[in-house]
Fold:
Amino acid sequence: MKGARFIPALVFLYLVSPCAEGAATQITTTEGTVRQPEKEIHVNIHSGLKTIPIRKVIGAVIQRVEEKGVDAINGSGAQGQDGVWDLSLTFMDKEKGTQRDFKWKYVRNEGKLTPLNAEAGKLSFPLSSFLFSTAIDMGLGMVEGQEVSPKTINGSAKKISEGLWEFDLVGLSNNNENFVQKWAYNSEEGELSPTQFDHSDLDKLLAKAVVNGKIDYTVVKNTPHLKDFLGKIAEIDENGLKSFPQQEQLAFWINAYNGIALKVMADNYPAMNPESIANTAETKRFKVAGEKLPLVQIRDDTKNNFKDDRVDFALFSVSGNPGGLWTETYCGRRLNDQLDRAAVASPRMTKNEEAEGSERVY
Structure:
């Protein structure tokens, strides 16, 4: 399989791939502007023995294109019948204003990649075709493991500085839902890192527990999603969090606060004693990014450190509706839009309510 020697470039673009359902891509139709559903997924390929084939392939691709002066790559894929994919890649040297186009057909159940133009037929990398097939099938399987069945893929990669690349992917599922993911790759150290936090467990919880604007705490208590989410926010280290873009860091702290507030409320359900809730929020410490903090400090630090008046609207309210909590988490890529919508949907408390402290977790 001569053409199979180029699978790494596909994997490179495909796995640069996913904040939550309900995001939107604006599409103009004859009936006006509509919002297309979007889902941010989190494919964990940056560590672990099982992902070695993918990381080796990505490393080989980046090394080769850097040697050739390529500083940007665009790619696309479309799945046809019986798992057959039509693939294309474009390598670009922006300084010289040149580009090379490559096209293949990939039969997934056979691991067979066939070049469809002369450029694709001439391209090869110093890795085995078996490794390429393993990497691409593993990547597709990991995306499908995020409850996404991809039918089209559009990826891009650009060289940010010497040895540093940024990967960006937008795909479309068979349910006509966009899925996205962003990565950073350090070619000098061979490190691939996601540039957003994995909020998928909180997404799953909210989708099940928030119904008609109200929270079903029985669902919160009886599903593993909240426990899994709280475990993830506890495990991430401070340096890892600070490596994210500023908006993604803010989204992390909003989601962390909301997730912990849900736990405080669920632990008090069904009594819902305001004094008990307030005492828990002020005294009990929860581990976030390696540090144990009370809920009130997480709230105050988030508002003070990021200095965005809209944050208050996004934080969990117990006034009888979820307030800033919808059926989705917050994410850096869409945070401005989400905070604007939260501000519109969540009117400020009256001074009496705030003074009483009975309408919000403190």
The chain has two domains: 2-194, 200-356.
